[in-house]
Amino acid sequence: MQQRKTNPDILSTPGHLISLAARAFARLSEARLKPLGFGIGYLPVLVALEEGRAETQRDLARFARIEQPSMAQMLVRMERDGLIQRTPDPADGRSSRISLTDTARARLPEACAELFRGNGEAMAGFSDEEAAQFIALLGRLIENLERLTKE
Amino acid sequence: MQQRKTNPDILSTPGHLISLAARAFARLSEARLKPLGFGIGYLPVLVALEEGRAETQRDLARFARIEQPSMAQMLVRMERDGLIQRTPDPADGRSSRISLTDTARARLPEACAELFRGNGEAMAGFSDEEAAQFIALLGRLIENLERLTKE
DNA sequence: TCTTGATAGATAGTTACCTATATACCATCG
DNA sequence: CGATGGTATATAGGTAACTATCTATCAAGA
To answer: Which helix (H) or strand (E) holds A86?
Structure first.
């Protein structure tokens, strides 16, 4: 009917487009990781533990750039799924050391391969230059946003 | 310790960077919309209704590009928040016509303004050309992803 | 030593999405 | 006209995030 066009293109803003892209990416990745028993959110944790970059919940949350309660819940799911184990830190009664199970370690390479494949397919038709610029612009956008919310 | 670097940059892939950007955008937008009583997910619905582009749950879901059950739950929240009302479709007992309340209509322009402002700030330092290219590349990425998941 | 503040993690409650499935109504064809 | 298939919405249950708040432990200074 009217097509009033009062708010023309909220749906063409970077903010909305990025949200669409993120959902589409997540759906694809989730479908491909499910057979391996991984959720998409697990991957930063798996990588951090595999590479010895974090061992405590706090450090994992920082590494994955999510809040502590989100990480706490994720670790509950990962433990339930048999991917991590916790051993109490002898030196600090509040903290646990988190480590990968053999299952998790065995499946991680394939999960990474699937994600790289998905990224390749998502960027199909991008020249090397376009891909590089896209990533650079994304990085600048993220920096701007993090500065904004920290203020 | 080791820094094995087995899975070097899962965290620098477009997929992960986009997810970071989307979360940062959502956090910022949510903070700014909360005083108006809107959630970030509401906006496509508000705009679709305001512009007369959809009236039923099904059409709203298509317009917002989310699944029907997600839209159903969102409409429950929006009704609870006094932003929409439903009137049963006289011609089809399964369906309802959804419309904006005066409150919603009154607040929508300010919400859109806040979102545009946030987008502007997020793109600070981007030349017009960079912004245009970023949006174009994002569009191609989304197309690729939607083709992939539809297959 | 004891209190006080900081830190590690847990819990509660919410949003925004998803898949899978159920229900209820409509429409058509034999 | 009644079964049957399709469509509109609802419900169930799950993931991945968030904020706000609580608890337990640690560390340091009065």
So the answer is: strand A84-88
Is A113 within 8 Å of chain B by CB? Answer: no
Q: Name beta bridge partners: B97.
A: B87
In B39-95, at which residue ranges do the beta strands (DSSP E only) sit? 84-88
Q: How crowded is residue B91: how many other Cβ atoms within 10 Å of its Cβ?
A: 6
Of B61, B102, B68, nearest to B84 by C-alpha is B102
Measuring alpha carbon to C1', the residue closest to nucleotide C24 is: B94
Token duo for residue A79: 């433990």
Instruction: Spell out the per-residue pLDDT of chain A, length 151, in tens.
Output: 444 455 668 999 999 999 999 999 999 999 999 999 999 999 999 999 999 999 999 999 999 999 999 999 999 999 999 999 999 999 998 999 999 999 999 999 999 999 999 999 999 999 999 999 999 999 999 999 999 987 6
Chain B, nearest residue to A137 by Cα: B134
- Cite the beta strand spans of B33-123 per DSSP E: 84-88, 96-100
Q: Where are the domains of chain B?
A: 28-124
CATH classification for the domain delimited by A28-124, as one of 2.60.40.1180, 1.10.10.10, 3.40.50.1820, 3.40.50.12160? 1.10.10.10
Neighbouring residues of A70: CB distance < 8 A, sequence distance ≥ 6: A61
- Nearest chain A Cα distance for residue B6, angstroms: 7
The residue type of A137 is L
Tell whether A91 is within 8 A of chain B (Cβ): no
